[in-house]
Give the backbone structure.
Amino acid sequence: MTVGIAWVLGGGSGIGRGAAVSLAVSAELVVVSGRRVDELQRTVDAVHAAGGRAVALPVDVADEAAVAQAAEIIGADHGPVRTLVYSAGTNVRNRFWDDTSPRDFARVVDINLTGAVRAIHAVLPAMRREGDGLVVLVSSWAGWRFAPGVGAGYSTSKTAMGALAETVNAQERLHGIRATHFCPGEVATEILDTRPNPPSADERARMLTADDVGDAIRWIAELPPRICVNEIVFTPTSNTSYA
């Protein structure tokens, strides 16, 4: 089943790139957004190599006007967004109460959570008109079960994404719009470098890959519109959260 026009925010690397490449096989077009133009182009090239169509549309998810304008551009140039994947996310090294600041906390929450609000708000009008739409909010194991090592800002923002997805499902269900709180365990992406003690190469080799996660997102996107995957949690077998 086609996933229509897919818009992947945070599409320049990591899970966003994995999702974009995986969606290439079933999307009419994948629009990848983020701040780093060179990385976005690498994702576009990877989608093309996978046999799909893609364009890059740089946008800063912290800029409400820019996100709204990007959605308008997509609609005018390509058609309404049917599948929104919000994969933009960040964390900080100084994430604990003895070394963090309200500014650090606000920055993490703004990118991880409020950016998702901006994106959802931008695509909902067209989804309502079409009577169909999917929102995949890339959260974390830490958004499903408390993980003390991720810090206050990350834990708060990812946990709140579950409630955000539920508001979409509760309020937009009769418009054919559904949302997934998507909670992967450890994934070997560059955000791991923001940890106070980044994992080793051997540790990363046991984690999920961005392609693993991208394939799961595609599976959700390809389901019939009558099915809502409210929440999904999956981890590497070596899940260190149990350690």
Notes: The two ends are 40 Å apart (CA to CA). The first strand starts at residue 5 and ends at 9. The longest helix spans residues 102-130. Residues 92 and 104 are 7 Å apart (CA to CA).
